[in-house]
């Protein structure tokens, strides 16, 4: 088995020591170097050629986001961000994912040493996933400083979607993990304002999903927000599973409702795609469309097959566009996919599939 070579970049000596210790305890990993700022890290990357980099955001001499942008332009390397669990930290973390970071771990605000040790399993899982990630070179225009860059304007939906009406009883279910924040964005920004309700489970811890929803809301024609327990699911809206909860759909008469509850992890995830998709299979059936995007592991794959057996039409992200092809591959092995497409094509296909056909065109 190839040893995963990891470079730790953090301005905290304690964090550098703890991460090195966690990594070196693994039989398949080695911390090949540590750096206390990006300028030192730049020279170490050239010398050591690491497989994965863990990177802090707030550091001296060069901001972590600026460094990440330059790295992904010039020498794309899998990066796991080490971020702080604050509103500002959440914004910066989402920006890092946009710039090409594979995943992130949020540092505890109190009890740093004990907190990082408790997160050791999560850290090494994310480093392993990152070592398999399909990272891409980012164009210079996409990698400017976070302080200077402005969010792009919402993408205009397909001309064929303009003025189209959609079936009000349909629901779209999206599940994603590693690399999913950008894939979800690519779909949602292309959907028109009157599109059927979209339910999203993205593997993400508490404190980040609210910021994620707000960011998408500013880019999409849909109203995007964290799901609230008991609320009616309405067309023109996208509902994001709150981090640290399980999210599923329920039914009351003709209405679909959001259920957000504090339940145990499923497939080690909370929220879990499996929970959302199983509720779709049970209660929505042929009125559902399922979408499984990039991610490590198999969460949601079997439940997507249950959706298909219940009459759902399902999409799986193609390998070429995935950061990590694990979850989509598993869904394909279950025979759960009707189509395998990149996110932009999934959005276009959803628009055409869910359009209401005027009576004069019905047979």
From TrEMBL:
<dbReference type="InterPro" id="IPR008248">
    <property type="entry name" value="CheB-like"/>
</dbReference>
<keyword id="KW-0145">Chemotaxis</keyword>
<dbReference type="InterPro" id="IPR011006">
    <property type="entry name" value="CheY-like_superfamily"/>
</dbReference>
<dbReference type="Pfam" id="PF01339">
    <property type="entry name" value="CheB_methylest"/>
</dbReference>
<feature type="active site">
    <location>
        <position position="299"/>
    </location>
</feature>
<dbReference type="GO" id="GO:0000156">
    <property type="term" value="F:phosphorelay response regulator activity"/>
</dbReference>
<dbReference type="InterPro" id="IPR035909">
    <property type="entry name" value="CheB_C"/>
</dbReference>
<comment type="function">
    <text>Involved in chemotaxis. Part of a chemotaxis signal transduction system that modulates chemotaxis in response to various stimuli. Catalyzes the demethylation of specific methylglutamate residues introduced into the chemoreceptors (methyl-accepting chemotaxis proteins or MCP) by CheR. Also mediates the irreversible deamidation of specific glutamine residues to glutamic acid.</text>
</comment>
<keyword id="KW-0378">Hydrolase</keyword>
<protein>
    <recommendedName>
        <fullName>Protein-glutamate methylesterase/protein-glutamine glutaminase</fullName>
        <ecNumber>3.1.1.61</ecNumber>
        <ecNumber>3.5.1.44</ecNumber>
    </recommendedName>
</protein>
<feature type="active site">
    <location>
        <position position="177"/>
    </location>
</feature>
<dbReference type="GO" id="GO:0008984">
    <property type="term" value="F:protein-glutamate methylesterase activity"/>
</dbReference>
<dbReference type="InterPro" id="IPR000673">
    <property type="entry name" value="Sig_transdc_resp-reg_Me-estase"/>
</dbReference>
<dbReference type="GO" id="GO:0005737">
    <property type="term" value="C:cytoplasm"/>
</dbReference>
<comment type="similarity">
    <text>Belongs to the CheB family.</text>
</comment>
<dbReference type="Pfam" id="PF00072">
    <property type="entry name" value="Response_reg"/>
</dbReference>
<dbReference type="GO" id="GO:0050568">
    <property type="term" value="F:protein-glutamine glutaminase activity"/>
</dbReference>
<feature type="modified residue" description="4-aspartylphosphate">
    <location>
        <position position="56"/>
    </location>
</feature>
<keyword id="KW-0597">Phosphoprotein</keyword>
<keyword id="KW-0963">Cytoplasm</keyword>
<feature type="domain" description="CheB-type methylesterase">
    <location>
        <begin position="165"/>
        <end position="357"/>
    </location>
</feature>
<dbReference type="GO" id="GO:0006935">
    <property type="term" value="P:chemotaxis"/>
</dbReference>
<feature type="active site">
    <location>
        <position position="203"/>
    </location>
</feature>
<feature type="domain" description="Response regulatory">
    <location>
        <begin position="5"/>
        <end position="122"/>
    </location>
</feature>
<dbReference type="InterPro" id="IPR001789">
    <property type="entry name" value="Sig_transdc_resp-reg_receiver"/>
</dbReference>
